[in-house]
Amino acid sequence: MSSQAHVDKIKAPPLTDPAFDPAGAVEYVIGKLPAEFWDGSCHWHFTASQGLPGYEGLLSLRLWYWLDRAIADDDLKRWAAKVNAEAGFKLADPALYNPIQPHYTAAPLFFIDFSAPPPAGRRP
After folding, report:
1. Mean pLDDT lowest for which of 27-41, 64-78, 107-121?
2. How many domains, the chain?
3. Which of 10, 56, 101, 124 is the most buried (most CB within 10 A)?
4. Which tens digits make up the pLDDT trace of 89-115?
5. Alpha carbon distance 26, 6 (integer Å)
């Protein structure tokens, strides 16, 4: 069973640049999650808005964790609400745990001259 956390537009700490240190940015976000996620393996990737004009200094990414048991969507929604309340901002997107809402992941298409977002990676 896997679960993901969608972190959308949280303020990056000073001197954090995901284009040059994506792993450092990911570690910062993981540090915002509850302690049970700090040492776990995960797959991550930045979302399409990462690095676009108007979003400077913000981090947007998804983290996938492999769980040791199945957890119902309603339980994950409650977990996300609790995590967000404790963080004081929307850290985990509860919409991901809606079984009728598809979530597609693809490389973004740019029609103006932007550098591509940082690549996805896997945290060992």
Report:
1. 107-121
2. 1
3. 10
4. 888 888 888 777 665 555 656 565 556
5. 12
Q: How far apart are CA 97 and CA 11, in angstroms?
A: 24
Q: What's 104's domain CATH number?
A: 3.30.70
Helix (DSSP H) and strand (DSSP E) numbers for the chain: 2, 4
CA 106, chain centre distance (Å): 15
Beta bridge partner(s), residue 58: 11
User: Residue 55 and residue 12: Cα distance in Å, rounded?
Assistant: 11
* Category of 111 on φ-ψ map: left (φ > 0), alpha (ψ -120 to 50) or beta: alpha
* Side-chain-side CA neighbours of residue 26 (13 Å): 27
> In which element (H, E) is residue 63 found?
strand 58-66
| Domain residue limits at 63 | 2-123
**Predicted local confidence at residue 55, as pLDDT:** 82
